[in-house]
């Protein structure tokens, strides 16, 4: 295959000759430059070396033997090195050239764009002009790589980075590897894409993903059971098929609490005028 097919990937090439400004490498048909500024360690003519191929500012294929953990199809965390409001954000993947995450792949509202130092979970993509761009990890990728949370993880403090953001909420990939959702009611401000946040697990869902709150524990004087129930309610757009008449086993399975504790927590939420019950369902007054 032509070398252009390996842009954004690692390939093993032979060091065919030395030049004043670096080394020329070859696959037997094409040559590519390994510039001395892109070289790490000793490079010996006649030997083979693993290199990462990318395009320089003039669109020419170039090589580096500094191998990044992020290549086309492989994902890892990388730090935002610069923000350009006209182009997007630049990401340091460990090679000489920073890679661009274009503005078309960033949130519409610039207030939640990443800032310098934020971390993004990314891979690389190559366009038709052989230019390398950053690609954000999607929900299916995070789902594939996530660690499954269990009921024992409920109420634990966690920290992680935002990998997707929207008006309805933010999605977090935690340090433990949990995939989580932060409903808009569980954050005081919308966090940036790539921002590190700290919160707590307020629900563990059947698929092992979690709901997270960034709200301080003592806000609105609700106890943990009430917060747990209210967070679950809001994750369902303010409606759930559980009331103080629900069966104890259903409450235990869903909320991991006794019916007595459940009823007390519902009472606190009603007293705080946050919920009401109707026809076997509980609703949030916020969505009424």
UniProtKB/TrEMBL annotation:
<dbReference type="InterPro" id="IPR040764">
    <property type="entry name" value="CvfB_WH"/>
</dbReference>
<dbReference type="Pfam" id="PF21191">
    <property type="entry name" value="CvfB_1st"/>
</dbReference>
<feature type="domain" description="S1 motif">
    <location>
        <begin position="155"/>
        <end position="215"/>
    </location>
</feature>
<dbReference type="InterPro" id="IPR048588">
    <property type="entry name" value="CvfB_S1_2nd"/>
</dbReference>
<dbReference type="InterPro" id="IPR014464">
    <property type="entry name" value="CvfB_fam"/>
</dbReference>
<dbReference type="InterPro" id="IPR048587">
    <property type="entry name" value="CvfB_S1_3rd"/>
</dbReference>
<comment type="similarity">
    <text>Belongs to the CvfB family.</text>
</comment>
<dbReference type="InterPro" id="IPR003029">
    <property type="entry name" value="S1_domain"/>
</dbReference>
<dbReference type="InterPro" id="IPR039566">
    <property type="entry name" value="CvfB_S1_st"/>
</dbReference>
<dbReference type="InterPro" id="IPR012340">
    <property type="entry name" value="NA-bd_OB-fold"/>
</dbReference>
<dbReference type="Pfam" id="PF21543">
    <property type="entry name" value="CvfB_2nd"/>
</dbReference>
<protein>
    <submittedName>
        <fullName>S1 RNA-binding domain-containing protein</fullName>
    </submittedName>
</protein>
<dbReference type="Pfam" id="PF17783">
    <property type="entry name" value="WHD_CvfB"/>
</dbReference>
<dbReference type="Pfam" id="PF13509">
    <property type="entry name" value="S1_2"/>
</dbReference>
<dbReference type="InterPro" id="IPR036388">
    <property type="entry name" value="WH-like_DNA-bd_sf"/>
</dbReference>
């Amino acid at each position: 295959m032509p070398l252009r097919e390996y842009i954004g990937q690692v390939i093993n090439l032979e060091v065919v000759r030395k030049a004043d400004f670096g080394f020329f490498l070859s696959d037997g048909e094409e040559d590519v430059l390994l510039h001395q500024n892109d070289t790490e360690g000793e490079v010996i003519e006649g030997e083979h070396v693993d290199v990462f191929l990318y395009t320089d500012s003039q669109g020419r294929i170039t090589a580096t033997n500094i191998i990044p953990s992020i290549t086309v199809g492989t994902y890892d965390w990388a730090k935002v090195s610069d923000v350009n409001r006209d182009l997007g954000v630049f990401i340091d993947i460990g090679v000489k050239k920073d890679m661009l995450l274009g503005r078309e792949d960033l949130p519409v509202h610039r207030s939640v764009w990443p800032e310098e130092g934020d971390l993004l979970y990314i891979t690389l993509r190559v366009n038709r002009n052989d230019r390398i761009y950053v690609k954000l990890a999607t929900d299916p990728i995070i789902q594939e790589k996530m660690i499954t949370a269990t009921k024992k993880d409920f109420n634990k403090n966690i920290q992680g980075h935002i990998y997707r953001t929207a008006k309805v909420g933010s999605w977090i990939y935690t340090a433990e590897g949990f995939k989580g959702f932060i409903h808009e009611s569980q954050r005081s401000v919308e966090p940036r894409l790539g921002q590190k946040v700290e919160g707590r697990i307020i629900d563990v869902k059947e698929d092992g993903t979690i709901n997270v709150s960034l709200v301080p524990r003592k806000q609105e004087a609700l106890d943990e059971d009430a917060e747990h129930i209210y967070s679950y309610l809001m994750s369902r757009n303010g409606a759930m098929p559980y009331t103080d008449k629900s069966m104890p086993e259903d409450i235990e399975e869903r909320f991991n609490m006794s019916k007595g504790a459940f009823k007390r927590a519902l009472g606190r939420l009603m007293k705080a005028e946050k919920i009401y019950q109707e026809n076997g369902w509980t609703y949030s007054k916020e969505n009424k």
